[in-house]
Here is the input.
Amino acid sequence: MPAPGSPGAMATSFFHTSRSAQSVAIQRATHSRYSHVGIIFIREGQPHVFEAIATVRYTPLAKWTARGADSRYVVKRLKRGLTHAQAARLRASAQRFAGKPYDLYFEWSDARIYCSELIWKMYSQTLGIELGELQKLREFDLADPAVKAKMRERYGTRVPLEEPVISPAAIYDSPLLKTISD
Here is the structure.
């Protein structure tokens, strides 16, 4: 893990396999082991993950990792790093999203936010860096029974197939990131 107070400590993405009810569907739709992502910041000398769950909030790192399958996680960081000023701007941008409700429908708006949307928008809106490729919902593997069931639960028969989506897998696979710890 990056040293507290270093720019990387404020600009490091953490991925894990969530144990949430939608995790399996996300994994199967994206063909990825990872279904959740957050960004770490040092608060009061302790690492916290800024994430979108029930609401967008800071979660102590130990609590965040304990929520993941087998308490495992992967740490990634920008290959080119960030300046202290960029890291500070990224950290300040968190305030725009803090407290927003979680977006169960994966809509591309700022009214509600899902985990990978939070990370993507923080980097994009603050630094002009797009971590991963946006996709349309129709581009995911929607044929899996677990995915079909979750889609039916959320959308009924009106699945918004043209909705732009950023997945944890797309951020994980971004060529702009390098793995720091696995």
